[in-house]
Amino acid sequence: MIRAALAICVPLAVGFAVDKPTIGLLPAMGGLLGTLTDRGGSYLYRVERVSSVAVFGGAVGLAIGSAIHGRGWIAVVALVVVAGASAVLSSLGDTGPQIGLQMLVYASLGIGPIRSCARRRGAGWWTGSSGRSAGGRSAAPSWSG
User: Fold this and answer.
1) Helix 60-68 vs helix 73-89: crossing angle, to nearest 10
2) Phi, psi of 141 (to 5 degrees)
């Protein structure tokens, strides 16, 4: 539990501390991927499981999301297709559900938050239209580019 909190919160805290949350988003997502996927066992099994989920789930999902970013309804249809592929992967063995989950999560991040933050330097995906929270950031995300 402590390892998960450190792997996810520390990169985000550093990003917010230097006023560039974008630099903490991907390392935090990597920490999330690692802590959700690593279930113990021999080191060889753990490395195989985490690396296969990272490559076939995270990297593929991020590539798909980045490729369809800003394409309007094509992006919506593509995300539905990715969700269907994730559901099919969920029925495959021990690693399939994790690959499907991470592929969908990273595709969603590639479509909106990560690409929007990379393009708009001053405002990120957390800058929404519902007003500001006490920390100076909006409570509702806005994924518009």
Assistant:
1) 160
2) -75, 150
Angle between helices 22-37 and 43-53 (to 10 degrees): 130
Distance CA 5, CA 55 (A): 23
Angle between helices 96-111 and 73-89 (to 10 degrees): 170
Residue given tokens 């690693």 in the structure block: 95
Judge contact between 96 and 89, C-beta under 8 A.
yes
Helices (H), the chain: 2-17, 22-37, 43-53, 60-68, 73-89, 96-111, 113-119
Domain boundaries, the chain: 2-117
Q: State pLDDT tens for residues 49-89.
A: 889 988 999 899 989 998 998 888 999 999 999 999 999 99
